[in-house]
Specification:
about 180 residues, alpha/beta, Zincin-like, 2 domains, 7 helices, elongated, binds zinc ion
């Protein structure tokens, strides 16, 4: 459920069967998010929001509604670009270096550029569309190498190096960018 609030814009209300009390957090778009017990009514959620306004203002970095919408738009554009590019680039390198993965997933997490799960799903952050191609490729090669090594062992880095001899520099440069939007 979404509550439209004059001060905080759209407030996301998530009903959780597990939560016993109401908790506030910030969504990846910078919106205020409330997790509430399953049977909480909209009336009650609003009342709780009102009685916590001062605390929220002080403690949580809620983006203003205009910025929230701008971020939605940016994400949509980036997702569109990413869809037309990242799965193909991944496929290209997988073929070139004979890797087999199950699935490519596009994410927009705030903290990581990519990941590789034990069921061979490779996740790539759509924020990669904002970084230079060499760094984008490095992330793809890094995740592909995880198909053979699920850790950051010497053997893993040796494999990355065999595809990208400048990987150390690329890893360093990547730190200048933020995966979040
Ligand atoms: Zn890694």
């Amino acid at each position: 459920m979404i509550i439209k609030d004059k001060e905080f814009g759209e407030v996301i209300v998530r009903k959780s069967p597990l939560s016993k009390n109401i908790k506030f957090s910030i969504s990846t778009s910078g919106r205020l998010q409330m997790s509430v017990p399953k049977y909480t009514s909209e009336f009650l959620a609003k009342r709780f929001l009102n009685s916590n306004r001062a605390m929220i203002r002080e403690k949580l970095p809620v983006r203003n509604p205009n910025e929230q919408r701008a971020r939605d738009y940016q994400k949509k554009q980036l997702m569109k670009k990413a869809k037309e590019y990242l799965p193909y680039r991944l496929e290209y390198y997988a073929k070139r270096y004979s890797y087999k993965y199950e699935k490519c997933r596009l994410t927009h997490a705030n903290t990581r550029w990519g990941s590789c799960s034990s069921n061979k799903t490779i996740s790539l952050n759509i924020g990669l569309m904002k970084v230079p191609e060499t760094l984008r490729d490095y992330v793809i090669l890094h995740e592909l190498a995880h198909l053979n090594h699920m850790d950051h062992s010497r053997a893993f880095w040796a494999e990355v190096a065999s595809h990208d001899k400048n990987y150390k520099m690329h890893e360093k440069k990547l730190k200048m960018f933020n995966p979040g939007l």
